[in-house]
Amino acid sequence: MAEPLLTRACRREHVERTPVWFMRQAGRSLPEYREIRKRYDLFQVCRQPELCAEVTLQPVRRHGVDAAVMFADIMLPVVGMGVDLELVENVGPVIAQPIASTADVERLHVPEPEEAVPFVLEAVRLVREELDPERAVVGFAGGPFTVASYLIEGKPTRDFVKTKTCMYAEPEVWHTLMDKLADTFAAYLRAKVHAGADVIQLFDSWVGALSAEDYREFVAPYSARVLGAVDAPTIHFGTGTTHLLRELKIVGGDVIGLDWRVPIDRGWEYLGSGRGVQGNLDPALLLGPWERVEEVTVRILNAVAGRRGHIFNLGHGVLPATDPADLGRLAQLVRERTAVEVTA
Fold this sequence. Notes:
Layout: H1 5-10, H2 31-37, H3 42-46, H4 49-63, E1 67-69, H5 76-79, E2 85-88, E3 92-95, H6 102-106, H7 113-116, H8 118-130, E4 136-142, H9 144-153, H10 161-169, H11 171-195, E5 199-204, H12 212-218, H13 220-227, E6 234-238, H14 245-251, E7 255-257, H15 264-271, E8 276-278, H16 290-304, E9 310-311, H17 324-343
Parallel strand pairs: 1-4, 4-5, 5-6, 6-7, 7-8, 8-9
Antiparallel strand pairs: 2-3
Helix pairs in contact: 4-8, 9-10, 9-11, 10-11, 11-13, 16-17
């Protein structure tokens, strides 16, 4: 049986067209998902495999995209480590007892995924069974830096003051925490691949807050460990990372995800050969007129010019106010434009 289109593109093989999927496509803008959320909170959805699989598959049916990204939250694995957290609507993860000392880190343990998150693994199996063979299942985890920042700050932040204070003033606390997170996420992602995930994405949303020097010292070894632990194609993504692209390439990932801040051809030039590229339409464009979405999409595809290893995606996640019909039109546009270019 042929591998999914996305999997082959990650390996920079010749493909019949450019695969397209959207970060945070599961949930967010879909009315059928919002109906489910009227009855269940996010963790309740995740803990019911059939329901989680349904939410994961909804955008595939609606938009015709080439991958189903598993519905989950990046903080889910740390619950099994012993972290008490709450997902607060319109705020994000709020930690009951933020990490502030070596003792706090020592209380955390590295769980076995089959014991801590069996419902996630069962949802992966269900999605893989139901999904067409040519479409991929994407499993993901948060990057160690991003998750560590939530654990230390206690809630989302813009300045990362507590996080950087820990890095600089308490490096032993920082490295011990990152060590446990890397082990936890490596096991979590390996288990997802074993359950049926075809592609893995490391979603290090906030790592752009670091300099290249700090990234190399405080983050790179741990992200490399996570990415190197899985036997599947990997995508490495962060926002605000134009200055870190070469670092991300060194750390790992068959494909490097670009946000909307850098032109895709320039980002690929920074990365050089040997890596695929995912991206990178600004998700906010989908809140405006379709004509502009089409114009920028065509510009991205023309800049790529059929180069092997391109995966079309947004430069971050789908925004909740996005019209689902526009996501379907966008997926169709990419299919039509690239099929002509690839077969010419």
